[in-house]
Q: What sequence folds into this?
């Protein structure tokens, strides 16, 4: 959102600085040479805002596209190189935006990280779709699956260590992934 705020502030600067810069230029054109240096500096600064707005707009467009696809920059670069992943984190446009910016659309423009303004994700566990690749389905090796949580939704996870979805996940993938919560410290 910081990029969006910078873009909006720069647009306001262009709009609100046009009149004072025009007054300085008109004053110099009418013969007041004492403001010549200020008029030159103001014109240079004013016209440098236009490429700045263009650069920020392209940056915003790129990042909004990443949110739309629910991708990181590295995943997008891999895709450009032709590396196709068997897994997609794109859960649909509406879910992707809510996942990143929060469930309440009216609070997206406010930097609130609590309640309905908080992002839906925690940045660690992310929903994914497995894609068909060359006629066979991608394996779910080493990834946490939300369906495991739904299987035991009515369980008391604090008292039943055996039914903990994290433990179930790591038992299934014991040969490839070790539960970081159960590792011994060295």
A:
């Amino acid at each position: 959102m910081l990029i969006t705020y910078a873009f909006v502030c720069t647009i306001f600067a262009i709009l609100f600085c046009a009149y004072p810069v025009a007054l300085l230029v008109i004053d110099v054109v009418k013969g007041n040479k004492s403001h010549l240096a200020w008029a030159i500096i103001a014109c240079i600064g004013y016209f440098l805002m236009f490429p700045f707005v263009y650069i920020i707009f392209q940056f915003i467009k790129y990042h909004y596209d990443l949110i739309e696809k629910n991708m990181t920059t590295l995943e997008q670069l891999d895709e450009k190189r032709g590396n196709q992943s068997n897994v997609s984190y794109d859960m649909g446009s509406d879910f992707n935006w809510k996942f990143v910016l929060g469930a309440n659309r009216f609070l997206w423009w406010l930097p609130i990280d609590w309640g309905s303004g908080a992002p839906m994700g925690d940045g660690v566990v992310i929903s994914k779709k497995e894609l068909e690749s060359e006629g066979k389905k991608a394996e779910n090796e080493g990834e946490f699956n939300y369906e495991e949580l739904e299987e035991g939704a009515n369980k008391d996870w604090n008292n039943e260590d055996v039914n903990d979805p994290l433990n179930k996940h790591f038992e299934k993938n014991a040969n490839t992934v070790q539960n970081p919560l159960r590792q011994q410290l060295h």
In short: The radius of gyration is 26 Å. Confidence is low (pLDDT under 50) at residues 134-142. The chain has six helices and four strands. Residues 84-139 form one domain.
